[in-house]
Amino acid sequence: MSNAKQQAKEKEMAMSVSNVYLHVVEDVINNVRTDFQSEGVDDNILNELQSLWELKLVQSGAIQEPSAHDANPAAKPIPQTVATPVLDLNGPVAAEEYEAPPNYFSQAPASTSSREPVVFQYMPPGPREESLQLNSGHQPASRIGNGAPSSYMQQPASWMNQKHRGVEVNMNETYEERAVDNGLAQGLNTAQGAPPITKDFLTISTGKRKHDEISSGNYYIPQRDGAADVELSTLVSESCQNEGPEALERWIAEKSVGRNEDLRLWSLYRENADAAIEHLIHAKFSQKLSSSQLDGVDDEYDGYQGVAEDYNEPEEDDLSAPEAKLVVNSEPTESEGSEPPLCEDDDEDDVDDADHGDDEPATNHLVLAQFDKVTRSKNKWKCTLKDGIMHLNNRDILFVKATGEFEF
Amino acid sequence: MASYELYRKSSIGVSLTDALDELVTNGTISPLLAVKVLMQFDRSMNEALSTKVKVKTSFKGHLHTYRFCDNVWTFILENASFKTDNDVTAVDRVKIVACDAKILAR
C-alpha cells in the first residue's frame, strides 16, 4: 500500500518536474521567437529546435512525455521507441541511457559467434555512422538483421565498436534491446561470416597470447621487477592495453571494483623502482665523473632527494651518495615488501574516481543551486541553498530550498 | 540582465545545448542565435525555479572536498542522503555547485 502511494507520489513529483521543464521549454521558445524572426530564421526551425530539445529530454529521462512522442508506457522502452524512429531516420542519438553493465562485453565468446557486436555491412559515412554504432551494438546476428539496415553495416563497424566498447558500453545494451524489440529477426548470418569471427578470435587470441608470453617471460615486453608473476597477469594486461579493449576493461574493472590495493601498489612499486633505479644509475655515473666537485656530496643529495622524493619519500632519509648503491640493491625488495603508502595515492584517488569510475561518467550525481549561506564550525558545515536542480540516481529533482549539514 | 549559466549543466540545459549544437553544425542557425537561446534559457530556468517549484530538501553527508572560488562553492559529498517530502535518496558521491544567491545581477 505504502509502496503504491510512494510510487504515486513519485510519479507526481516526476510529473511536476516534467511540467516545470516543459514550461521552461515553452517559455524559452516563445521568447526566442522574436529573436529568430529578427535573424530571418524560419519558424519551422524554431519548431524543429523545440522538438529536438524535447526529444533529447525524453531520451535522457528527464521528462516522461507521453503525448509529444510515440513512447511506450514502460520506462525502459522510452528511449527505445523514441530511438526507433531515430534509427530509421538516422537521426542523432546523443544522450542514451547509461545503464549497460560492463560485463556485457565480458560474456564468453562461445556464447555468441561474435563476442563483438555483430558485424554489418559497410555504411556510408555521415549521420549513418551513428546508426552504425547503434546497430553494431547488437548482440548475436540472429537477433538482428533487417533487410535495410543490414545492408549498411560492415566489418569496420566491429572495430569501431570495439573502440567504443570500452567507452560507450551503455549505448550497446540499449541498442540491443531496441533491436530485439524491433523484431529484427532476420539474421545477419550472411553478413556475419568469417571476417567477424576471425576478427573476434584474433582479438582474443592476441590478448591471450600476450598474456601467456608475458607470464612466461618470453615476450619482448621486459619485466623489470623480477620473475614473472601469475598474479600480475592483470597488471601485465595494462602493458598490452592496445591489444584489446577487453583487457583494458578488465584492468579498469579491477581497478575500480575492488581497488585491490596490492595490485595498485604493485604497479606503483614497479614504476617507482624502475625510475629510481634509472636515476640512481645515472647518479652513480655522475658521481664517478664528478668526484672532483668542490661542492661535495650536497649537490647529489639534492639531486637524489629531488628525484627520489618524487618516488620514495620514506627513503629520502636514508638516501645519500655513498649509500646509493645500497638503495639500488634494496629498491626492488623494498618495493615488494612493506613500503609505506606513497602519498601519491591521495592524488591518484581523486583522479581515479573522477576518470575511471564506472559510474562516474554515467550517473554523476550533481546538484546545481544557489547558496544563501554557508557556515562552518570546526568541522561541521551548514549551508542553505535555493533554486536548485538535483540529478541523483538518474533522476531529476528540483527544490526551492535546501539545507545541508556535513562533516569534513 | 544576464543570469547564472549554472543550469546549463543540468539535464535540460545539456539537452538544449546539444540540440542547438546540432542545428548550428548543420548550419541551420547561427551561433549567435544559439547563444541568445541559451541566455534566454538561463533567464527562464532561473525564473521557473524560483516561482514554479515548491519542494524543499535537506541533505547530509560527509564532506570530502570544499572549494570557494570566484564566489562559487563547490562541495563533494560522500555517502550523502537527500531527504525530500516523501523519500530519501542516497548517493555515494555527489558534487554540489552553488553560486551566490545574493548577486543582484541575477
TrEMBL record, chain A:
Keywords noted in UniProt: Nucleus, Transcription
CC per GO annotation: transcription factor TFIIA complex
SMART domains per UniProt: TFIIA (SM01371)
Organism: Physcomitrium patens (Spreading-leaved earth moss)
BP terms from Gene Ontology: transcription by RNA polymerase II; transcription initiation at RNA polymerase II promoter
Residue numbers spanned by region Disordered: 329-364
Superkingdom of the source species: Eukaryota
Biased composition (Acidic residues): 333-361
Family: Belongs to the TFIIA subunit 1 family.
Protein name stated in the entry: Transcription factor IIA, alpha/beta subunit
Subcellular localization(s) per the UniProt record: Nucleus
Gene3D superfamilies found in the cross-reference section: 1.10.287.100, Transcription factor IIA (TFIIA), beta-barrel domain
From TrEMBL, chain B:
Compartmental location: Nucleus
Highest taxon listed in the record's lineage: Eukaryota
A single GO BP: RNA polymerase II preinitiation complex assembly
SUPFAM superfamilies in alphabetical order: Transcription factor IIA (TFIIA), alpha-helical domain, Transcription factor IIA (TFIIA), beta-barrel domain
Residues in Transcription initiation factor IIA gamma subunit N-terminal domain copies: 3-49
Cellular component, GO, one term: transcription factor TFIIA complex
Signal peptide (residue range): none
Pfam assignment, any one: TFIIA_gamma_N
InterPro entries given in the database record: TFIIA_a-hlx, TFIIA_b-brl, TFIIA_gsu, TFIIA_gsu_C, TFIIA_gsu_N
Subcellular location, principal: nucleus
UniProt keyword terms in alphabetical order: Nucleus, Transcription, Transcription regulation
GO function terms (MF aspect): RNA polymerase II general transcription initiation factor activity; TBP-class protein binding
Domain Transcription initiation factor IIA gamma subunit C-terminal: residue ranges: 60-101
Function field: TFIIA is a component of the transcription machinery of RNA polymerase II and plays an important role in transcriptional activation.
Subunit record text: TFIIA is a heterodimer of the large unprocessed subunit 1 and a small subunit gamma. It was originally believed to be a heterotrimer of an alpha, a beta and a gamma subunit.
Family (UniProt): Belongs to the TFIIA subunit 2 family.
Name this polypeptide is given: Transcription initiation factor IIA subunit 2
Source species of the chain: Physcomitrium patens
